[in-house]
């Protein structure tokens, strides 16, 4: 939950969300898992480098992902 000093949609909160996503990706290295990032982290990436007229989007303080994989006895999904 955000404090009065640190709004929920702050750049610092976004940086924490990005760091969490990077930790998950590192933990899943070598796994055959399809992962798609959705939600608040995406708009800034899609609009990066565009004209100043593009509204700034800070995103949210969480990471929304879609994960697709088949489960079998040999697959280690413990990072999830």
What would you note in describing this structure?
The protein has one domain (11-68). It is built from 2 helices and 2 strands. It has helices at 11-27, 42-47, and strands at residues 34-38, 64-68. Strands 1-2 form a two-stranded antiparallel sheet. The longest helix is centred in the first third of the chain and has 17 residues, at 11-27.
Pick out its properties.
alpha+beta; two-stranded antiparallel ribbon; 2 helices
The first-to-last residue Cα distance is 23 Å
Low-pLDDT parts are none
Total strands: the figure is: 2
- Domain unit count: 1
Instruction: Indicate the proportion of strand residues.
Output: 5-15%
Mean pLDDT over the full residue set: 76
Report strand order across the widest sheet: 1-2
Number of helices: 2
- Described by the principal axes of the CA atoms, the overall outline is elongated
